[in-house]
Amino acid sequence: MTQVQVKAKAAGEFKQEIKTESHSLLSDAPKSVGGGETGPNPHELMLGSLGACTNITLQMYAQKKGWELKGVTIDLTEEQVDDPQNPGKKVSKITRNIQVQGDLNDEQIEGLKGAAERCPIHKLLSGSSKIDTVLKK
Prior knowledge:
Blueprint: E1 5-8, E2 16-19, E3 24-27, H1 42-65, E4 69-82, E5 90-102, H2 106-116, H3 120-126
Antiparallel strand pairs: 1-2, 2-3, 4-5
Helix pairs in contact: 1-2
């Protein structure tokens, strides 16, 4: 089980301290909504998680196959687009552009694309998930 704790650095502040078992990092809201931009905003963190997971997955897959994958760079964007199933509503669309370096043939490139779509964060974001919320005083 993965566990993370998130706590506001000070009351009424948007700056958040995110603690894992062995790391600590900050997230903050953009200045346009009253934040201080002292760290990535939650959407940037989510995109970073997808990119990091994808990159790790591709590297592990290539190592397992013995392929000469020399490097991976992933650019991610999130935008609001019209929901084709609900006219007038918007949905998030994430675009993941992956650039690979190495001596790879077309079949290996397709294999890497398939591996990218099997990364755990990709599956979490694109599949059905359940979030239970418990609020206590």
